[in-house]
Structure formats: structure tokens, C-alpha cells
Amino acid sequence: MSQGSMLAVNARVTAFAMGGQQRVAHEIMKRLPEAALIMPTRPLGGLKGHAWEQGVLPMRAAGRLLWSPSATGPLLYRHQVVTVHDTAFFDVPEYFSPSFVKLYQTLVPRLCKRVAKVVTVSEFSRQQMAKRMGLSPEKIEVVANGVASHFRPYDPATLEATRAALDLPRRYVLVQATSDKRKNLARTLDAWRQISDRLPADLHLVVSGNLSRAHVFGETSDLDLEGPRIRVIGYVAEEHMGPLMAGAEAFLFASLYEGFGLPVLEAMATGTPVITGNTTSLPEVAGDAALLVDAGSTQSIAQAILDLVERPILASTLTTRGFKRARSFTWDAAAERYAAIFRGLQMAKNETSSSQPAGGMVREPSPIP
After folding, report:
1. Are 83 and 117 in contact (CB under 8 A)?
2. Which of 71, 79, 127, 137 is spaced 20 to 30 A from 144 at the CA atom?
């Protein structure tokens, strides 16, 4: 990265396994090649990570415009853009650990009021941020997420290689969930168990995702993962995510709360029909290209699974619509929006600096790589 970069990125989040927020940071950063990435020398989570952001990061940013892509950043650094994906820690605090809720309810609103610009990922999240944090809607820019290129249809040989690598059944419905209770995994599993005897005997439910983030989402020891033809495969490496989705007969994402819901679009891009929830940002993202369900109803989820399995014309229609829907969300477009925001803020700062009397100008320190 160039030492003369005008943009610095708080890249602490990129040290962790790929999730929604890591995906956004990764895809935008690789399209901003002149940005200077700043991160700890080793992965820092929890309080140690926040302490690094408040103390070390501002010094290393050295007066440059700073982008913090994962909701937190240095409170005293005003020349900053912060991306906040949702306000779930206000809206549904019962789904998180008490310590996480307390920290984010204290830190994030203060940060958003201080920084130059706030970005979020959906109109739903923009409205919630304005209401929950007392922000002017004009201060919040909506930049929708995109779909990475490896979410696409795959040839049979690639699907077979991923099936072998992950020990997958030949036919499966895919669920992507974490220990985050918003993902509604317990109710999804209950729905499957209720109808498993009405489904083809060779059709399985495959559950992927990291189920071990108790420091954020609380304990999940009470989650029953047992049941007929249920296969839990845990965290899946990025190289297999596209083929894993593409090989499914349906993608089931009955989430109770999403700031965006990127897996919905990723599954659509692979040609897999999608079932998802009918609340928060999900209808905004899915449009008419998914089967929407009442995620709070086990019966609604179960019926949607049956509908897709028993009505191939419905599945085919959703696949066609899904391809079209996913193509309208690109990371190139998202990166262009971010770049425009960064340019506008930098130009405004330069104009302000040039209008000050010579004696009042403050010289910024040299950038630190």
C-alpha cells in the first residue's frame, strides 16, 4: 500500500473468519488498492480489540480519512466513515450476551454522532439507526452489499469435489446459521423434524456455520442438533461456499432479523431457490425472488420446505427470478459508492483547510504505514 494514501482502513475485522461484515470489508478494500490497511500485529477481539482501536489506531491513521467497516472505531477521530450494518443490539438485545449489548449500546451511538459520515446496508437499517441513535437520516448513506464472483452455478465435477470434501449427502436443503439466535436455527430444525417423514427419504438438511461465538451471542448449549437426516458440518472454508450453495435443492434462511441478509443473494446467484423471512431487511433484499415465510412460525417454515420440494415449477420460477435479482447487486457498484463518499469528504476537508488563515492551519503528521 502506498504511504501517501489519503484513505486509511480499520482492518481489524479482517483477521477473523469470513462472515457478513468481513465479506463487506474484504470486497470493498480489494477495490480500493490505494487505501492503507491498518490492523493489529495479531488478531484482537473483545476488549483488547476495542482498546487497540481507541489507542493505537488513531495514531497510525495519522490524520488521514479513516474507514471503519465494522461498527466500531476510535471515538476521538472525527475524520472517519463508519459502517454499521444494523442496530440489532438495540432492537433485539435478547439475542446477544449482556456484555456485548452494553458495550455496543454505549459505544456505537456516540461514535456515529461524532464521525463525518455513517454508512449502512439497507433502507431498513437506515431508518432503525435514525430512530435508535437519534441521527439525522441525511447523515446516513445506504450502500447495498454485492455478490462475490464465486457465488455462481458450478459444473457437476466441482459440485462432486465439494460434496466429497465436506462429506455431503447427494440431496440436501442447506441452512446457514451461527450461534446468533437471530438466525432462528432451533425453530428451523423443529420445522424439519415435523415434516421429515413427508419428504423424500434421501433428502437431508445440512447446517453450515460457526456455532461457537458465545462471547457475542451467548451460550447455545441448549440447541438440539439431532434429528432425522440432519447433518451439521460447521464452518465451511470460503473455497467451498459457492459449490455448497449451488449443490443444494433449496437454501433455507428463516432469519428473525437481518440488516441486509447477504446469503440470500449469494444463494440466488448460484441458482438455488431461497426461503427466507418476511421481516426487517429481508423482503427489501429478496424482492419477488424468494419464498417469504413467517420466521416466527414453525408451521410456516415447514410448509415452505414442502412447497419447494413438491412444486418443481415454483422452484424453477424462484431460480430464474433469483438469478436476475442477484445480478442487480454488485461489489463494483458498492465500491464506487464508497469511493464517492470518501472523495466528497476529502474534498470538503481540503476546502475547509484552504479557507483558513495561514496562522490557523494545522499540519497533519506524515502517514504511517
Report:
1. no
2. 79
